[in-house]
Amino acid sequence: MKNDTTKMPVDVADEELFDNWFDPIETELRTKVRGFIETMINGELEMALARPRYGRRSPGLPVKDGGAVLVAGHRHGRRVRSLIGTFGPTRIAVPRARIIAEDGKTAEWKSKVLRAYQRRTRAADALIASTYLSGTNTRRVRRALTALFGGAVGKTVSRVWCKVKGDWDAWNARALAEEPIIRLILDGTVVRVRLDKKSTSISMLIAIGVRQDGQKVLLAIKSMGGESEAAWRALLDDLVKRGLKMPEVVIGDGAPGLEKALAALWPEILVQRCTVHKHRNLLAHAPERLHEEISADYNDMIYAGTKQEVATKRKAFLRKWRLKSPVVAASLEEAGDKLFTFTRFSKSQWKSIRTSNAIERLHEEFKRRIKTQTVLPSAETAAMLFWALLASGQITMRKVDGWQSLNEKPSDQMIDLAA
Length: 419
Fold this sequence. Notes:
Low-confidence stretches: 59-70
Strand order of the largest sheet: 6-5-4-7-8
Order of helices and strands: HHEEEHHHEEEHEHEHHHHHHH
Number of helices: 14
Mean pLDDT: 82
Shape: elongated
Radius of gyration: 31 Å
């Protein structure tokens, strides 16, 4: 008769998972980790001193006048330091030494393996930041990681977030003069934050650039009260101040404030109105019973195969809907030629130029991550979270479709699309 190996021993089966955090395997592993780290640091010091502990300096090294061996330095004890890693908390004995420089002066030796004042490994920092960015709050992160860090979490989460804040400030100030940006995608999204102890809706303005090799890159995030001309102009002026050159085309949602800001900064720039946003506008102007028919006619026009077909189907759309629903036709006419700027480019570029979907996807992912936090602590926190999701690699951006032909310049003349 075969034994049932799936049954747990009585003493283990009766013990609840969260009754006892002590694990002999984990404890022994952390002991081994401590020894490994100490061995690694001691090896680094031996290389700096050019001799092992209690050993003489190796022959063939520089000597002083008279044949005395030049000593690179000397040890002087050690200090115990605490370190938190993905292996949990541990305490290690770090050797100390004084290193003699060429001018004869001595300086305290500094390990490159364990940096000065380092209390956590980079992997631990990444784990804490990733847990926070996955959509939970600080208090829940502490509770979740208490078992791993043996109750040594304390203010670790807040300190890690301070490090993220420093990286965020550096990213906001970085130069853009060397960025080969040829296309700009602009859009805004609304989030709720706490201002003056009240929940308030603000707009986050996002700018994504497309490099010459087709790679999308996040350029700026600004938390503003709305999407006014002044708000968009502040974002664009900051990009220009940091060295951004005028791109070939800007893709936007057609917001009046954005349109005015672009016209004031770059009067001659090509602007593409997002065809998805315009589709939503058309449906908002018509009763629900007409939505399916409007969508079919609109998609047939926007996704036509050639410039001539786009022009022909636009005329047909306007003739039909001026009779059936004048407000729908008026909404399409309001966008003007900016809705069809994509036809100036090669056919391979149409898909990536027609819409601002690159930003829309980021909006959706960002809101999915923060849905457990109905109100974010501040406007800056909201912008930092959006940036950190990309910086940490939790959200990635691929190259645009048709990137192989990005070097092809747009046509100087617009095809006659007038009705």
